[in-house]
Design brief:
Radius of gyration: 22 Å
Strand order of the largest sheet: 1-2-3-4-5-6-7
Helix content: 40-55%
Strand content: 15-25%
Shape: globular
Number of helices: 9
CATH class of one domain: Alpha Beta
Number of strands: 13
Bound molecules: zinc ion
Structural class: alpha/beta
CATH superfamily of one domain: Ribonuclease Z/Hydroxyacylglutathione hydrolase-like
């Protein structure tokens, strides 16, 4: 073999090894901080053929559900949870459900607990969301939020402090082990939250975007302002399934930056769609539309309470503060009703 042939062979071998060790095209890839957890992080509840509602087990604090839609070629996931660790865990555990790669992620809205895993997705994954969601994330609003400060910073810090005290105080070995497990979950949560780099959608819509893709018809729709100014739902008309983010959840939804009267109108539009199963951003999947009527009644009550507390349309500073603390109390009630 001539010298040039040896060089050529060496190059071919190196290229071969290179591709053997290169990161797979499939995202998510590198393991981020905040992934020190005891699997599984998710339960994949099958809703229809290739459609799953991924609900957190509590082993990893993910704070929101994902909807998983498998197509002939790839996977679309709705929402990316509260941290890169949450999104990474979903991708890892999804491999046991399907070998297909995640190619689309939809952010139902910009809130921290639905979009703060976006950063793990590489350039081969389109992150789809409302233009408003992109603008809010770019403006730092998913990070700089009272709700995030409460649920992702103050609450875990307080839990860690309390768990450490209880661990120090207990003499019971089983109890101590149980508390230490909870402590590790909270410490891992903090690590995950600290690793967040808010990342906006790469593909936006203001009205609707329909994917006729891989044997599915996937409608991503903005029905009007509600939970935020830019919530989208993911609707599968053939399968009669809809993923609603926080526009409609199992219990009551956070309303800290909501548009309450418009939310009711938006829910009416949601009700006009033809579906059987709702995959909400929090809580369990449910059937039918009765919950929409109940939630509309709750929103009407909430709005009339707010109007009464204001007294008149133009709020002064005290009223504004009062409104915020009411929203926080509502959020706290909502949080207690939430599962992980
Ligand atoms: Zn939300």
């Amino acid at each position: 073999m001539t010298r040039s042939r040896w060089i050529l062979l060496a190059l071919v071998l190196t290229a071969g090894l290179g591709s053997m060790f290169a990161a797979p095209a499939q995202s998510p890839s590198a393991r981020p901080p905040g992934t020190n957890y005891k699997a599984p992080a998710f339960t994949f509840n099958q809703i229809a053929q290739g459609i799953y509602h991924a609900v957190g087990t509590g082993n990893l604090v993910v704070m929101s559900n994902a909807a998983v839609i498998e197509t002939d070629r790839d996977v679309l996931v709705v929402d990316s949870h509260v941290s890169p660790g949450g999104a990474w865990a979903l991708g890892e555990e999804l491999k046991a459900v399907t070998p297909k790669p995640i190619r689309f992620v939809v952010n139902s809205h910009y809130h921290f607990d639905h979009s703060h895993g976006n950063q793990i997705y590489g350039p081969d994954v389109e992150i789809i969301g409302h233009q408003f969601a992109r603008e809010m994330i770019l403006a730092g609003k998913s990070q700089d939020s009272r709700a995030r400060e409460f649920y992702a910073v103050r609450a875990p810090a307080a839990q860690i402090e309390s768990l450490m005290k209880r661990i120090a105080a207990t003499a019971d070995a089983a109890e101590k082990a149980r508390l230490e497990e909870q402590l590790a979950i909270q410490q891992n949560f903090v690590e995950g939250v600290n690793a967040v780099k808010p990342t906006p959608p790469t593909m936006t819509l203001t009205d609707r975007l329909t994917l006729y893709h891989g044997g599915r018809e996937i409608h991503i729709m903005f029905l009007g302002r509600g939970h935020t100014a830019g919530d989208v739902v993911v609707y599968l008309p053939k399968e009669r399934v809809i993923a609603t983010g926080d526009l409609l959840v199992e219990g009551t939804s956070y309303s800290g930056d909501a548009y309450i009267p418009e939310w009711i109108d938006t829910l009416e539009k949601l009700k006009a769609l033809d579906f059987d199963t709702v995959l909400p951003g929090h809580g369990s999947a449910f059937k039918g539309k009765a919950k929409i009527d109940h939630f509309e009644a709750y929103l009407r009550l909430l709005w009339s309470e707010r109007l009464q507390s204001r007294g008149r349309p133009h709020e002064n500073r005290d009223m504004e503060r009062q409104r915020h603390s009411r929203a926080e109390r509502t959020a706290a009630r909502f949080s207690r009703a939430r599962t992980a």
